[in-house]
Amino acid sequence: MNLIYKDKQLIFLSLFIYITSILVGIGYLNISQGNLLIAISIFIIYFFQGIKNEFYILDIFIIILNTIVIVFTKQVNLIFPSLLWMYNGIVRRSRINLCSLKLILKFSVFFYIFIIMSYYFFGFNLDKNIEMWRLTKIISRNSLGFTHPNVAMLSSLSLLFYYLCILTEKKDFRIDKLIIPLIFLIILYSLTLSRTTSIAVLMLFLLLLFRNKYFFCNKYLLNNFVILLFILFFLISISLLLIPSNSYFDELLSGRITLYKSFFSTTGFTLFGNSTLEEAMFDNGYLQMLLSKGIIYTAFFIIVVIGILKKRINYNESSSWILIIFFNVAITETTLSKMELWIPLIILLNLNINQEENL
């Protein structure tokens, strides 16, 4: 299949997934409808690419295993690991380049800003603004047109990842290149007051700025460190359920630890999870997955993610720091199950193979 044609497929698919996630984020589609549209789009493009090229045995094995998990749990939404694996295959067969990344980013930014403008000029989702108690006072948080202020911030995180893909491709992380997204982040934080994502992104900027001055690490060793931290963040999250909670720390996290323990006392750890927790107010992606989807699915998800990281082509140091921050954010946000965040990350992991094809 012509590489340029594959590139167009990837651009369309990436934009479609982001726009679908925005429609879910503003409440126009529910989560099930959004997941169905994303799954169908990935299946179609993967299937047609496979017909023109070939279906890899490992890919088929992953899909079959995932299907078995779905049959036992009777939860169709557990197809997510296969979608990650298939999208990774689509990217590796495509020819993503700087122009493609810029095109995806421009259209995504346009759609994101359109929602915010609708919020300010037409009062779209104005009723989704919230007031809440945080530490010693009541704070007001703007939804910016989304169903929740945190959703608005997480939707911007996908845009940031695309932008960092472009900087990685250009090998340019000068401070002037990070000023605009930093200002954008400060403005978003002042409106949404979404703390954890903002702090994580700020840490990422600092890591990217000073990586060459203060961080010297073998790139392959760093990739293993990423995998180790991914597992460690899982274990840290589980420990929140098992060890006595600190009242100050719990208050700092707006009572999240107490909430996690409440869910855990009701269901405990199960092989196939508890689907009633799918819509529960979890702010920890690791615990949300483990308690609602079960031990078997979680183990399968971990294996798939590690497989994608082991198959990565781009061992660039900056991409590893970006992944570390992403896995860190999942401790306080349900980011692990959001395809729109994985899309730019998977592209980032495969940038070098596309650079070779462009030569």
TrEMBL record:
Keywords: Membrane, Transmembrane, Transmembrane helix. It comes from the Bacteria. The chain crosses the membrane at residues 12-29, 35-51, 58-83, 103-122, 143-164, 179-209, 221-243, 286-309, 321-349. The keyword Membrane applies. This is Wzy.
